[in-house]
């Protein structure tokens, strides 16, 4: 019988139960035991759900209270010195301090850096390592969760982040090579594998996603050395190893992966179906192939007939016993269960599959391979749904196609170069040296969220809701003026999410009620579903920006989400190329930018936090992506006058490799997140001699800790050591929607004071 398995399941719960449990614990409302009980209940529910959906071997240790990379660092005692004392007395508090920072009773701990997990919108915590690092098993999380499932009568396959990928995803604080720590790390893995075997685990899944990226000789040698220890004959008693790769093709790493002494290999046949033949030829006889046939990262139904062709081809080579069917990657990136979805109409819902439904699709495929007559009904229903989607008049809009066809190169060019625009903008805006601003959103308080919920449920009329939003906006403007900020924002109280808000007003988008996925920690997002051609029926933000500008004489920023980010943070249609969908979004945003300018808004920010995230994992594919991503941004922003200042914002990104493309976007001002890295991320802009203006963040809004003025001054001095004063803006790392008003006021007071102190220093230096 063909085995159905799974690489990982969403942690947060269908209705974000984990989010609520975490936030109650962080607020002090629930103790550790209560949080752990809620986590155990979710794990049990999810294991049972997977078995009910037809999974023969579900995973364990795929659950995390925050992040799987942080879990790995904590498990192997890779805890930086500053957290050590806390970790000895309060391990869970130290774990969360590493993730979020901590400020209490004389303790002031910065969080670890956070960055994107490959090309997804999930964020992981970056472990900090150093030469001579010691590792040891700390706690028994993988073992405990395996036994927890076993007590429920469910036999699982424990999941671990593999040692080489763990080291390559980490950073060293002393400039040493992380892979030099491999020999010190491996004994802890060997010890853990032996413990899992003793507990009854027959297989363990070691995730090595770095195998789908470009590797140098040192990394290749590290894989060989690591698995000679973990899988070789000299290893202690251990479970069989499934080496899991995903997010792309193995390509030039296939020979390496196939040569490692493991019992099974998982490959992504959704992103890279073309690799199957080469994988089958390279994989030694007797080795299990785990075939990733269902997309773990999107919500469309699988084309089961196509997947079945691949599965049958693989079965002919491997035989039924050595072929496992699985999603392409962990289902962490998909919502939990479509059956809970009540907002979507029947037609659109029939085109979709969430995590539970994806597992059911795998069961249909397995049953078809095994010749069970029951599979035909599932295959027939799949064909009908796919055919209905192809024929639906909701998908294509001839007017959008005509507008795309009319685009020219001039539509992606500002009227003048930056030097000329800068003169016009400074004359128009009259800003001081080191101007202060924020990234966009202000605290989304309980009052704001409740008002939005009441309006959506019909308990608050549109007129009353808009009156409430006007009051919140006016309050936000007054607060910013009192703080002394130079360029204001309206606060975005009308927005539930920086992508969903726009998608709700664009044609071609649909929205779920419970389509939540985890972004980081307790932060969950509900990506829009792009099912058809995109267009803008009417202005989306002008009403609120115009109202906010009427309340102040200071410049008011119009706030938009850029085309690449809207694309990346949505569930994107899979029936046309992504660049075509991105250009459609860009044209819709171009209309909005032009309308904002016409309404008197002289500063417009088009955020692209996801542009680095969308970069293909292989360098050979970068140029094509960057060309169309930059073009889409420029289409959105190039219709305005020279005096209109265009900003953009980017999140946790390594810019070294794409700095030329970032410069090619030609934004007048770019703000980037740099406070967690202590300005390290600014290095790329400095080495490139970035010509335009830059706002390196000085306040980490993802942490509850509030930095003081001295800390911000120190960061700004680091920036001024490498940037011209006239280039530098002063701003937080990101939007403030997740913070409370008291901490926001305190941090922004320090930010404004830091800018004032440095302005005075610059004035004194000029006089001298």
TrEMBL record:
Binding site for 5-methyltetrahydropteroyltri-L-glutamate: 16-19, 116, 121, 523-524, 569, 613
GO biological process: L-methionine biosynthetic process; methylation
Active-site residues from the entry: 702
UniProt GO molecular function: 5-methyltetrahydropteroyltriglutamate-homocysteine S-methyltransferase activity; zinc ion binding
Protein residues bound to Zn(2+): 649, 651, 673, 734
Source species, domain of life: Bacteria
Function per UniProt: Catalyzes the transfer of a methyl group from 5-methyltetrahydrofolate to homocysteine resulting in methionine formation.
UniProt protein name: 5-methyltetrahydropteroyltriglutamate--homocysteine methyltransferase
Gene: metE
């Amino acid at each position: 019988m063909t085995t159905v398995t799974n690489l990982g399941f969403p942690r947060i719960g269908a209705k974000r139960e984990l989010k609520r449990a975490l936030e109650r614990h962080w607020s002090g409302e629930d103790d550790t035991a209560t949080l752990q009980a809620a986590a155990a209940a979710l794990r049990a529910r999810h294991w049972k759900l997977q078995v009910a959906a037809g999974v023969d071997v579900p995973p364990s240790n795929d659950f995390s209270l925050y992040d799987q990379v942080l879990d790995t660092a904590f498990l192997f005692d890779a805890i930086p010195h500053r957290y050590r004392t806390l970790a000895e007395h309060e391990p869970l508090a130290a774990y969360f301090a590493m993730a979020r920072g901590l400020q209490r009773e004389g303790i002031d701990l910065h969080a670890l850096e956070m960055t994107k997990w490959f090309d997804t919108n999930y964020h992981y915590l970056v472990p900090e390592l150093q030469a001579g690092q010691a590792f040891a098993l700390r706690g028994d999380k993988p073992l405990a969760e395996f036994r927890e499932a076993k007590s429920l009568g469910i036999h699982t396959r424990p999941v671990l982040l593999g040692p080489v990928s763990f080291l390559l995803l980490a950073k060293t604080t002393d400039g040493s090579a992380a892979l030099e720590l491999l020999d010190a790390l491996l004994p802890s893995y060997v010890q853990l594998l032996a413990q899992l075997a003793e507990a009854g685990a027959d297989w363990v899944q070691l995730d090595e996603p770095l195998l789908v990226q470009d590797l140098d000789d040192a990394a290749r040698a590290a894989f060989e050395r690591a698995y000679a220890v973990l899988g070789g004959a000299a290893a202690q008693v251990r479970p069989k190893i499934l080496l899991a790769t995903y997010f792309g093709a193995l390509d030039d790493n296939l020979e390496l992966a196939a040569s490692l002494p493991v019992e099974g290999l998982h490959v992504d046949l959704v992103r890279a179906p073309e690799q199957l033949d080469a994988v089958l030829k390279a994989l030694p006889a007797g080795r299990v192939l785990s075939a990733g046939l269902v997309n773990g990262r999107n919500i469309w139904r699988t084309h089961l007939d196509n997947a079945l062709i691949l599965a049958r081809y693989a079965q002919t080579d491997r035989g039924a016993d050595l072929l496992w069917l699985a999603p392409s990657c962990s289902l962490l990136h998909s919502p939990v269960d479509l059956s809970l979805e009540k907002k979507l109409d029947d037609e659109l819902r029939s085109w979709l599959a969430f995590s539970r439904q994806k597992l059911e699709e795998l069961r249909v495929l397995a049953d078809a391979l095994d010749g069970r007559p029951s599979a035909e009904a599932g295959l027939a229903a799949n064909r009908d749904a796919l055919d209905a989607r192809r024929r639906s008049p909701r998908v294509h809009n001839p007017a959008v196609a005509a507008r795309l066809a009319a685009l020219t190169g001039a539509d992606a060019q500002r009227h003048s170069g930056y030097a000329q625009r800068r003169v016009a903008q400074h004359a128009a805006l009259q800003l001081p040296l080191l101007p202060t601003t924020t990234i966009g959103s202000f605290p989304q308080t309980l009052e704001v969220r409740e008002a939005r919920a009441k309006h959506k449920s019909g308990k608050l009329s549109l007129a009353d809701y808009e009156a409430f939003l006007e009051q919140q906006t006016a309050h936000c403007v007054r607060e910013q003026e009192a703080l002394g900020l130079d360029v204001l924002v309206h606060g975005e109280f009308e927005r539930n999410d920086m992508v969903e808000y726009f998608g709700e007003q664009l044609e071609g988008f649909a929205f779920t009620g419970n389509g939540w996925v985890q972004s980081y920690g307790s932060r969950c997002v509900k990506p829009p579903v792009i099912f058809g051609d995109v267009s803008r029926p009417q202005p989306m933000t002008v009403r609120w920006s115009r109202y906010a500008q009427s309340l102040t004489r200071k410049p008011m920023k119009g706030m938009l989400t850029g085309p690449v980010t809207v694309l990346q943070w949505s569930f994107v249609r899979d029936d046309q190329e992504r660049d075509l969908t991105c250009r459609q979004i860009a044209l819709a945003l171009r209309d909005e930018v032009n309308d904002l300018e016409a309404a008197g808004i002289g500063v417009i920010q088009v955020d692209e936090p996801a542009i680095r995230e969308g970069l293909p994992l292989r360098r050979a594919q970068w140029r094509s992506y960057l060309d169309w991503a930059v073009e889409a941004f420029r289409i959105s922003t190039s219709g305005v006058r020279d005096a209109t200042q265009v900003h953009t914002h980017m999140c946790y990104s390594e810019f070294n490799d794409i700095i030329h493309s970032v410069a090619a976007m030609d934004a007048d001002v770019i703000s980037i997140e740099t406070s967690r890295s202590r300005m390290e991320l600014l290095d790329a802009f400095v080495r490139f001699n970035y010509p335009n203006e830059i706002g390196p963040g000085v306040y980490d809004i993802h942490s509850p800790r509030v930095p003081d003025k001295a800390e911000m001054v120190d960061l700004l001095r680091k920036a001024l050591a490498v940037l011209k004063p006239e280039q530098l803006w002063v701003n937080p790392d990101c939007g403030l929607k997740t913070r409370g008003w008291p901490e926001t006021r305190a941090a922004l007071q320090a930010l404004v004071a830091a800018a004032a102190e440095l302005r005075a220093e610059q004035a004194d230096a000029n006089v001298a």
